[in-house]
Amino acid sequence: MSMFLDTAKIQVKAGNGGDGMVAFRREKYVPNGGPWGGDGGRGGNVVFVVDEGLRTLMDFRYNRHFKAQSGEKGMTKGMHGRGAEDLIVRVPQGTTVRDAETGKVLTDLVENGQEFIVARGGRGGRGNIRFATPKNPAPEISENGEPGQERELLLELKVLADVGLVGFPSVGKSTLLSVITAAKPKIGAYHFTTIVPNLGMVRTHSGESFAVADLPGLIEGASQGVGLGTQFLRHIERTRVILHVIDMSASEGRDPYEDYLAINKELESYNLRLMERPQIIVANKMDMPDSAENLKVFKEKLAANYDEFAELPQIFPISSLTKQGLATLLDATAELLDKTPEFLLYDESEMEEEAYYGFDEEAPAFEISRDDDATWVLSGDKLEKLFNMTNFDRDEAVMKFARQLRGMGVDEALRTRGAKDGDLVRIGKFEFEFVD
């Protein structure tokens, strides 16, 4: 079984803020001591950090839930609770993080040591020392900590390589990689010997270097889920140059030109932008008897089917076995890389805007619906946050919450919808009676 994993779905939960405390100063010789309860500590964030030592998402196969610690509760003498440590989750370079609910890309992590907060911890609740006023110098009110952010994430690994080797199975991609780099991919005389992407570093005679990825062989229909190719087409997206390897000996009984068209069709079907990347055609197995004649026919067909004003892709005849033509191919690849810019993987429509953790002024503060049992149901981010941060063990806090609801217009909206005295109203799992 392969130990390479390039997709994962996980759940993250940031820490809740610590609850504020209700306390009073009671010390000898300090009359009318007043409120003395401190604020709760901040909950821990969940932070992704890029670790260049990781190569797959295998760590997320069995560990799919990540929960940061909550902040400590506030203490007496006005002391704040301790804030929780952030939960650090290490991911490999090239990891794309999406929100599972919206499908939007949150971040693309490519630099070693790069950090991104995927879930923010809640702030600590205020202690009663914060609520003292001239009218109420001894309040028995405190807040619960703000809940930490919770979300489901999709992780997708796209290997970091400058050059991608594509082509049908058994055209010699793995052999080529093993000859031009120190990588040692599994090589066999059967289809789909390569079942995971292999990476290697190339150094040319002129001293330039670049990373090459050997990707599992594509077949016709790969972009629709046929064969192994569909699982690994994503890894081509980061490459800047594509080396299209073709078996010019036609040892499998296929036409080399038809192979060329079929693979390009799969690349285009998967992602139109893959065809923006410059290609170099690698005519492999030129040490075989019929290869020279097949290459001549291939060039004629290629020229005949290209627009007269279009620039034909470069063709390099090589033999991985005899190492014929490799130096010229690598120099040309390095030269093409120098003048090829990075390709943006995502446009603005795919990226989630920078997270805003306040309230959207245009969004309604609350919504009212009717449940099957005739209970009125209140919902909405602002209302639910106020509810979660209310300490219902304290009468003053409950009265404060009731005033907040009235100030938001909840009472009037319920009357308008037809709520009567004694009707049940539900917020989450909490129920209370409507009093007109």
UniProtKB/TrEMBL annotation:
Residues 358-436 form the OCT domain. GTP binds at residues 167-174, 192-196, 214-217, 284-287, 319-321. Keywords: Cytoplasm, GTP-binding, Hydrolase, Magnesium, Metal-binding, Nucleotide-binding. It comes from the Bacteria. Its main location: cytoplasm. Gene3D superfamilies: GTP-binding protein OBG, C-terminal domain, GTP1/OBG domain, P-loop containing nucleotide triphosphate hydrolases. InterPro entries: G_OBG, GTP-bd, GTP-bd_Obg/CgtA, GTP-bd_prot_GTP1/OBG_C_sf, GTP1-OBG_CS, GTP1_OBG_dom, GTP1_OBG_dom_sf, OBG_GTPase. Coiled coil: none annotated. Residues 2-160 form the Obg domain. GO terms for biological process: ribosome biogenesis. One of its GO terms (cellular component) is cytoplasm. Residues 161-338 form the OBG-type G domain. It is found in: Cytoplasm. GO terms for molecular function: GTP binding; GTPase activity; magnesium ion binding. Its cofactor is Mg(2+). An essential GTPase which binds GTP, GDP and possibly (p)ppGpp with moderate affinity, with high nucleotide exchange rates and a fairly low GTP hydrolysis rate. Plays a role in control of the cell cycle, stress response, ribosome biogenesis and in those bacteria that undergo differentiation, in morphogenesis control. Monomer. Belongs to the TRAFAC class OBG-HflX-like GTPase superfamily. OBG GTPase family. This is GTPase Obg. It comes from Streptococcus sanguinis.
